[in-house]
Amino acid sequence: MGKQMIGALKAGDRVDSYFSVAYKKPVSEYKYGHMFEFRIADRTGQITVKYWGGENRPSVEKLQSLLERGGVVRIVGEAGEYRGQLEVSVSEKNGGTIDALKSGEYDLSTLVVSLEGLAEMKERLLGFARMVEEPHMVLLLRRFFENKGFMESFSTCPASIQLHSAAIGGLMHHTLNVAEICSRMLQLQPGLDRDLVIAGALLHDIGKTRSFVISTNINHTVEGNLVGHLIVGDELLMEQIRSIEDFPTDLTLKLRHVIASHHGRKEWGSPVEPMMPEALLIHMADDMDAKLNYMVLKREEAETEDDWTWDRRLSRLIYLG
Fold it and tell me: Which among 23, 77, 149, 236 counts the fewest CB atoms within 10 Å?
């Protein structure tokens, strides 16, 4: 079966392809019968599907029960806009159908991206860790990046669901980019605390290891949704700091501040904004890599003969020339 990608769908398109189920909602009534909605995903994004059934509620409930989180379904329907958002409508009227697929009936690589070169990326990350000289931070980084269990989670974790580095290995790829940007800026700003910058760059997103789960799609864990990766990251950091004898209080607070402030603004999810130049650098490197990665990916995935593509998330045109 050919694969239509969510990122390439436009209003008016006939949809006939397979997707992963991210979540579903219960059956409810509407004017002409019963309906339900669910969220589908592939490697290019997510979109809502609405199934419009008739008056036979048990029949609609039976179809809804076939949908399982992480399962893969073939959907036939039509793409359209509702309140400015693209969605897929499935109904008997438009010839729509929903069918659950079994393993082997779809290509997993079209649903979740897996980055290559994870072993090489791990070596690069350990190389950055070896740049740190402050003895307490050296021990701290070893607690994380020489721990087999943690590294297994870290090296396979995505950096996001669909914004940037949304792939198996995405977190390590993003972390390396942040560390690389920071290390180059250290050459221009030699007055910064080099050890704090490198350690902070490597640790800023450690909370994502408990915030995401991967099956046939990338999704949040319950902890990731309810608590958030900044708070989880602070918890992981403090667990290891408490295991290191006489870890300096001042250094503890600085590292906690780096994690807490790396989103840069309170409205972007940071409880505090950067109050040290080292924290500001890590935030800006994080933000730069995330936004560039997203825009480059959207340009690469654009399926159009036009010189421009409209991105709904950024609410702007992206030039493809």
Answer: 149
- Nearest residue to 20 (alpha-carbon basis) of 109, 114, 115: 109
CATH superfamily of 6-110: Nucleic acid-binding proteins (2.40.50.140)
How do strand 218-220 and strand 316-319 relate by DSSP bridges?
unpaired
Closest alpha carbon to 169 in 213, 108, 117:
117
CATH code for 113-301?
A: 1.10.3210
Work out the angle at residue 61's Cα, subtended by the Cα atoms of residues 57 and 63, and round it to the nearest 5 degrees. 120
Instruction: For 135-168, give the DSSP string.
Output: HHHHHHHHHHHT-HHHHHHHHH--S-SSSSS-EE
Whole-model pTM: value is 0.83
**What tens-digit pLDDT sequence spans the chain (321 residues)?**
679 999 889 999 999 999 999 999 999 999 999 999 999 999 888 999 999 999 999 999 999 999 999 999 999 999 999 998 999 999 999 999 999 999 889 999 999 989 999 999 999 999 999 999 999 999 999 999 999 999 999 999 999 987 888 899 999 999 999 999 999 999 999 999 999 999 999 999 999 999 999 989 998 999 999 999 999 999 999 999 999 999 999 999 999 999 999 999 999 999 999 999 999 999 999 999 999 998 998 888 787 889 998 887 788 999 998
Query: Domain map of the chain by residue range?
Result: 6-110, 113-301
